[in-house]
Amino acid sequence: MTLATRAPADAPAPAPAPAAASAAAPHASAGVAAAVRATRRRRRADATATTVAAVWLAVLAVLTLVSIATPLLDPYFQDFTAAKLGPSLAHPFGTDGNGRDVFARTVAGAQNSLVVAVITLAVGAVGGTLIGVAAGYFRGALDNVIGFLIDVVLAVPALILIITIVSFRGPSIVSIGSTIGLLMVPAFARVTRSIALTVRERDYVKAALLIDTPTPRILVRSVLPAVAPALVSYAFTAMTAAIVAEGSLSFLGYGLAAPAPSWGGIIAEGRSDLATAPWITLAPAFALAATVMAITTIGERVKERYS
Amino acid sequence: MHSTLKLAGIGALTAGLAITLAACSTAEPGDGASRSASAAESAVAQPVDGGTIVYGLDRDITSLDPASGAISSQTVQSVANSIFDALMQYDENGDLVPFLAESFEATDDTSSEWLLTLRDGVTFSDGSPLDATAVISHITREGAEETSASRATVATIAAMEPVSDTQVRFTLVAPNASFPQYFTRDLGQIASTTAQDEFGFPLGSGPYVTTAYSAGTGITMTKRADYWGEAAHADTVEFKVLPDADSRYQSLVSGAVDAIWSEVPSQFTGAEGDGLVSATGHSATSFGLFNSHAAPFDDVEARKAVELAIDPQALLAVANDGTGAVSTSVLQSTSGYDITDPQPAYDPAAAKAIVDKIGGFEFSYLTDGRGEAKARAEAMQQMLAEVGITMTIQSSDMATWGAALYSGDYQMLDFTTSLFGNIDTNLSMLVGTGGLANFMGYSNADVDAQLAELAGETDHDARGVLLNSIAAQVWDEAPLVMYTENLAGVIYNPETLQGVEDFTNRPQVSIQTRLMWHAA
């Protein structure tokens, strides 16, 4: 039945009349050529964007390592006689109101933002996968309860919830990262649950059940590999969301305790000087936007590769 | 989905750049210079009656009753002065002069008895007379209401009696040569105790009456036709509640408001570039309070080490953008007294020697979350680290900071106040045993004795000697450390608003809306 209905669709189109064919052929070949060129252009643009994104993240990583390993970029040293100096060779991105090098603080801010993003991913992906796979594979009452809890968490404004929790726990990289991560758990759980639901109906999983394969083994060998591609794809989106969330938190004054630098915090510090010393805000704002774009671009390529 | 994410990223990048470029474009020095020149030209223009002045407040006002304490602070005196007239005020030289009062003078040599004489023909906005009985009723209520900011002051009055319809005799519990200075704010802003407006707030004798009030949003006031003094210029004044300092300033730049209250240094330094003008005074002082009842600051040596390690000049540079002045004493630069006994000067070597003797220590520094306080704390952290003291910064919101201040739940706390502006009356509140603003719990019998002597001293020079002597004793025990005298005041657009007073030499910035006029 399936084959019968698909066959005509798959069959080559009937040959056109000779006169019409001679007229339409140049147009058809030109259209195909244009489509091919467009596809090539898009692929070249994608490749360029991916390369630029990768280079940006690599540069950021190298600068972060330099910041950690050497005293060349000290984000804390204040020169009280050099407050709000414009960009120069000594201070490529100028200095802030306390006479600190904005470039050094932006690089150190990257370190904090990325560490928060990694913690967020670890907490969100592990927690979300466990819960999502459990709900999707076992279904029944467990699925209903988890689904209800996920809906409850998603119904509460995330940023307000994060601010409340961080206020009680105190601002630190671990508390901020794990709190944002906890609120990422429902999103990861939804992604993994939907895949686990379909995987459990596959023949190879049913066959494994018939030969009494232990459930943990089925989950690890059959379900998790099926979940992984979607998990990795979503991880990039989650990472950008975590970076923006940490930036928002710091901008609102609930981020890392002073004087620890973070992108959102530096942007907030420079906000009142936007008219007189815009460079204080420029560097971290650019770094934040560029990093989010870079991760998103690479995430898209990864998603395409898996799909 | 891909496109959406990409667009979001591009949007974020573009927005970041656009904000910065916009900021760059507003900082054109040439533009600022030309607009300042036009402001100077229009400053000599003749007053224009009519129109509406829109003024941005830095906080919500929950009550318009002077006894509520909600309009007694310097930042909202623009509201209080619109409804109420103060008995006394400071002129442009910083001298205390009568306003609603005709005179306020001591009738004995010890300054224990005072005679207040009111102007004739003053009425509240319902037409009822503002007479001696009304003054006594107002002051009695200020002493009775729990929310009043002047309860302690009223307690120093032993008796009040009406001598005539326009005269009141005050007999004090103890001599007080600076008694009239208490009557520039809520205690002197006479409110009716018998009549209220439609919003439930007492009537005043001021140039405006409240016609609309919405907590959290704003207040609208309309000019009184039967005002006893020179009538106000603008027909209407609209006060808008704009708590966020940056939004408030941008509202002024965009023309949504004509003037704003500000205590943000970068706004004063950037105002000229935006074609705006500031009218400010050194009326907000920043200082640090030690909790002398808990480690490590129960040791006077620890307090002195911190005091000597902090460079107020550097704090002025980073927290105040170089505006204002370094605070060297409890006496402000505008106090009219010579400072002969300043706080010990910045001396990191001496601080290090103390730390070497008592050992390095750690403490937490509590700030109220304002940008200036944060910048100050971060600078102090580095200064203290250089002498071996570890300071962690605890940045909180205003409510948490206030709770800690009153409960004493802090080790060291960042405090900015206008109390130092009236040092004659407020020094006893700050360092006297049990003083209303003595949040350090400081107590010294010699200081208390000299404060009592100061209260009865009428000679200006002798008062200066006593004030410096008290300051010297305070420095010996270091319950506090002075930082800076900050600018505070109003920023306005001179193309739309004129008539803002000069506050340079006044101990407090008390905005008078009745003198302002709408130029556009």
Q: Tell how many strands the DSSP assignment of chain A holds.
A: 0
Structural class of chain A: mainly alpha
Cα-atom radius of gyration of chain A: 26 Å
State the helix count of chain B. 15
Average pLDDT, all residues of chain A: 85
At the fold tier of CATH, the topology name of chain A is: MetI-like fold
What can be said about the biggest beta sheet of chain B? 11 strands, mixed
Continuous helix count of chain A: 10
Apparent shape of chain A: globular
In the CATH classification, which architecture of chain A applies? Orthogonal Bundle
Number-wise, the strands of chain B total: 19
Q: Can you summarize the main beta sheet of chain A?
A: none
Helix coverage percent of chain A: over 70%
Would you identify the regions of chain B where 5 or more consecutive residues have pLDDT less than 50? 1-43
What percent strand of chain A? under 5%
Structure description:
The complex is a heterodimer of chains A (about 300) and B (about 525). Chain A has about 300 residues and is mostly helical. Chain A is about 75% helix and about 0% strand. Chain A is built from ten helices and no strands. Chain A has helices spanning about 1-10, 20-70, 100-140, 140-155, 160-170, 175-200, 205-210, 215-250, 265-270, 280-305. The longest helix of chain A has about 50 residues, at about 20-70. Chain A is globular, with a radius of gyration of 26 Å. In chain B, about 35% of the residues lie in helices and about 20% in strands. Chain B contains 15 helices and 19 strands. Chain B has helices at about 1-25, 30-40, 75-85, 130-145, 150-155, 245-255, 265-270, 300-310, 310-320, 350-360, 370-385, 400-405, 425-430, 445-455, 460-475, and strands at about 50-55, 90, 95-100, 100-105, 115-120, 155-165, 165-170, 210-215, 220-225, 235-240, 260, 275-290, 325, 360-365, 390-395, 410-415, 480-490, 495-500, 515-520. In chain B, the strands form four sheets. In chain B, strands 1, 8, 9, 10, 11, 12, 13, 14, 15, 16 and 17 form an eleven-stranded mixed sheet that branches. In chain B, strands 4-5-7-6 form a four-stranded antiparallel sheet, covered by helices on one side. In chain B, strand 6 (about 155-165) and strand 7 form a beta hairpin. In chain B, helix 8 runs antiparallel to helix 10 (about 350-360), helix 9 packs antiparallel against helix 11 (about 370-385) and helix 14 (about 445-455) packs antiparallel against helix 15. Chains A and B meet through helix 10 of A and helix 1, helix 7, helix 9, helix 11 and strand 15 of B.
